[in-house]
């Protein structure tokens, strides 16, 4: 079975998603802190699932880095967020026309039940809007 650079199979490009936890495209701000470092950093969530996120950031971090993350998203007329503890499992250099930084694949290590529910609702909303 052929797999492209995004990890999708030819079959999953059709109507039905083949992943156990499908990804949903997002364009949401993220604030994160490297464990035991008080200074926050920012980035953008590119896509997400119930197991992890793909983000862009200018901060250079090695694979294995653990992060405390807050993802901000609109809920009605206000902003809310969900928080997770995640680990960097993949890192790539990201060079775009007007931006240079890094693309990170993050796997969730720990998430509270109430934040899991927020994430699931956000993912469902993103799939419905397509």
- Beta-strand content: over 45%
What structural class do the secondary elements suggest? mainly beta
Provide the spatial order of strands within the biggest beta sheet.
Answer: 1-2-3-6-5-4
Total number of beta strands: 6
The count of helical stretches stands at: 1
Computed Rg: 15 Å
Whole-number tally of structural domains: 1
Low-pLDDT runs: 1-13
Query: The CATH topology is what?
Result: Thrombin, subunit H
Mean of all residue-level pLDDT scores: 83
Overall 3D shape = globular
How is the main sheet built? 6 strands, antiparallel, barrel
Describe this structure in words.
- By secondary structure, this protein is mainly beta.
- It has one domain: predicted glycosyltransferase like domains (Thrombin, subunit H), CATH 2.40.10.220.
- It contains one helix and six strands.
- A six-stranded antiparallel β-barrel has the order 1-2-3-6-5-4.
- The relative contact order is 0.18.
- It is globular.
- The protein starts with 23 loop residues before the first strand and ends with a helix.
- The chain has one helix at residues 113-128; strands at residues 24-34, 41-48, 52-57, 66-75, 78-96, 99-111.
Q: TL;DR?
A:
The chain has one helix at residues 113-128, and strands at 24-34, 41-48, 52-57, 66-75, 78-96, 99-111. It has 130 residues and is mainly beta.
């Amino acid at each position: 079975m052929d797999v492209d650079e995004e990890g999708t199979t030819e079959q999953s490009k059709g109507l039905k998603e083949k992943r156990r936890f499908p990804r949903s495209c997002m364009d949401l701000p993220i604030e994160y802190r490297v464990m035991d470092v008080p200074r926050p950093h920012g980035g953008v969530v590119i896509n997400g699932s119930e197991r992890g996120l793909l983000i862009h950031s200018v901060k250079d971090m090695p694979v294995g880095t653990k992060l405390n993350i807050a993802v901000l998203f609109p809920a009605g007329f206000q902003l809310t967020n969900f928080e997770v503890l995640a680990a960097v499992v993949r890192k790539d250099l990201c060079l775009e026309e007007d931006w240079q930084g890094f693309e990170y694949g993050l796997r969730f290590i720990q998430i509270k039940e109430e934040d899991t529910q927020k994430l699931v609702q956000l993912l469902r909303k993103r799939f419905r809007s397509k």
